[in-house]
Amino acid sequence: MNSLFCLLANLPEIRKGEVEQDMKTREAILLVDDDINVCEVLKLYLEKEDYSVVCCYNGQEAIRKFGKDSYALIILDIMIPELNGWEVCKYIRNKSKVPIFLLTASGDFHNKALGFQLGIDEYIVKPFDPREIVFRVQAMLRRINPEEQKVLLPLKIEKLTIDPANYLIRFRDKDISLSPKEMDMLYLMATNINKVFTRIELMEKIWGFENSCLTRTVDVHINRLRAKLKGVDKVEIKTVWTIGYKLEVAK
Predict the structure, then answer these.
(1) How many CA atoms lie within 13 Å of 101's alpha carbon, on the beta-carbon side?
(2) Which domain holds residue 46?
(3) Are both 52 and 104 inside the same structural domain?
(4) d(Cα 228, Cα 176) in Å, to the nearest integer?
(5) Is 126 in the same domain as 232?
(6) Residues 163-219: pLDDT tens digits?
(7) Does a structural domain hold residue 44?
(8) Residue closest to 62 by CA, chosen among 49, 75, 43
(9) Are residues 227 and 195 both part of a single domain?
């Protein structure tokens, strides 16, 4: 924690020129950590770059504030009281595609794998430099700037309707909900029928980074998608052994 106080003392030395200036001002960030010192330091650094930061210190409070207001990004510690970070992450990801940065004192591989399977966007190990958090926040929000996003239109494949706006697939008048990552993956393959995607490609296109050690996350999401597509006529996610996956439509 001493390093954080040193950075706080040096805050005036961080000039606006050090960070990109093309972000929309006053985008709101929900910061969840039971360590008040961490919250105060990150809040100061982020507010210096014109972000609006809302702090809360336990999981229940995080869920209440998430439900009340709209946020551009969430920074979430794992070890928080009442509801832990895993539970909060799962709840938020079932409701929204908002980027989630997970903070943790553990660099354990299994925790990283679990986080990405739950749909987080960044995994940050403590102790960290608050300036790096600022850079990562800016990079993430630049990538998802709504002005640059394409509107995803509904798709119809045979008797299957894919509705990305509502995270639904519809077959024989039955609606089935998908998680944001499941929808992203299905929509990508549905707009590229018969194209084979490697696990690394899917990791990069859906999660925004490449990591060959975490491709099991892709397999988990594919298995969930297959379960939800079970019974849908003529539409199937096929495994291309040793390579990856493709969406196939039977003739």
Answers:
(1) 26
(2) 28-147
(3) yes
(4) 7
(5) no
(6) 988 889 999 888 999 888 889 899 999 999 999 999 888 888 887 665 555 678 889
(7) yes
(8) 75
(9) yes
The amino acid at 139? A
Strand 52-56 and strand 28-32: the pairing is: parallel
Token couple for 249: 């439509």
The whole-number average pLDDT for the span 142-160 is 74
Instruction: Give the end of a domain, one of 107, 130, 147.
Output: 147
pLDDT digits (tens, 9 = 90+) for 57-68: 999 999 999 988
CATH for 224: 1.10.10.10
**Residue 174, CB-side half-sphere exposure with 13 Å CA sphere:** 8
Domain membership of residue 35 (yes or no) is yes
CA distance 141 to 172: 38
Which of 52, 96, 92, 94 lies closest to 76, judged by CA? 92
Q: Which residues pair with 157 in a beta bridge?
A: 160
Q: Any long-range contacts for 242-245 (C-beta under 8 Å, 24+ apart)?
A: 243/196, 243/198, 244/196, 244/197, 244/198, 244/199, 244/201, 244/202, 245/189, 245/196, 245/197, 245/199, 245/202, 245/218
